[in-house]
Specification:
Strand content of chain A: over 45%
Helix content of chain A: under 10%
Largest interface: A-B, 21 and 27 residues
Oligomer: heterodimer
Structural class of chain A: mainly beta
Strand content of chain B: over 45%
Radius of gyration of chain B: 13 Å
Shape of chain A: globular
Distance between the termini of chain B: 36 Å
Largest sheet of chain B: 7 strands, mixed
Number of strands of chain B: 11
Number of helices of chain A: 0
Largest sheet of chain A: 6 strands, mixed
Chain lengths: 108, 115
């Protein structure tokens, strides 16, 4: 099964950009890259997804490497409400593959 | 309001008892999923269903059972055969795989404690 690798934790200052990396070296051509985030004791929340091209939405940007073996979630201006565990996930029409995620700490 | 509801939020059971966790959605989604999350860990897929009256085992289905008799409901039973059932259980739903590339909507979760 395809898997993702993320740093266990990262720290950012409020109102600064944050780049959350993800490696997925065994990704297949039909896998979509999804990002979700989870606050303590809550269900995960969808952030963004992409296949090959970079993607932007109101929450974040997703930069996908040309070989698709890695991707980066970009939060343009971190706020205290962005403190959460961020999961980089591969989706292939049947199920999601969740890793352990990156715990983002945002300092005021 | 459209969304996914899970009940109860906290559930306590004695070892050896079966327990059923409820999951209901009014989003008209075809697919529904059950995940288990242990402290400090990511989510692991238990079962999923792409359509009514059909479901598939996920990565850790042993000791669990599900049913999908209605589109909006996907209850999960944790049986006495599950060796370590204490965990946070999350239900999710999504449109069909061809729609929006599988964006999932999660419920608030049920924290099950078995003693």
């Amino acid at each position: 099964d395809a898997k993702t690798t993320q740093p266990n934790s990262m720290e950012s200052n409020e109102e600064e950009p944050v780049h959350l990396p993800c490696n997925h070296s065994t990704i297949s051509g039909t896998d979509y890259i999804h990002w979700y985030r989870q606050l303590p004791s809550q269900g995960p929340e969808y952030v963004i997804h992409g296949l090959t091209s970079n993607v932007n939405n109101r929450m974040a940007s997703l930069a996908i490497a040309e070989d698709r073996k890695s991707s980066t979630l970009i939060l343009h201006r971190a706020t205290l409400r962005d403190a959460a565990v961020y999961y980089c996930i591969l989706y292939n029409f049947n199920k999601f593959y969740f890793g352990s995620g990156t715990k983002l700490n945002v300092k005021p | 309001d459209g969304g996914i509801t899970q009940s109860p939020k906290y559930l306590f059971r004695k070892e050896g008892q079966n327990v059923t966790l409820s999951c209901e959605q009014n989003l008209n989604h075809d697919a529904m999923y059950w995940y288990r999350q242990d402290p400090g860990q990511g989510l692991r897929l238990i079962y999923y269903s792409q359509i009514v009256n059909d479901f598939q085992k996920g990565d850790i289905a042993e000791g669990y059972s599900v049913s999908r008799e209605k589109k909006e409901s996907f209850p999960l039973t944790v049986t006495s055969a599950q060796k370590n059932p204490t965990a946070f259980y999350l239900c999710a739903s999504s449109t069909s795989p061809s729609g929006r590339m599988g964006e999932q909507y999660f419920g608030p979760g049920t924290r099950l404690t078995v003693t």
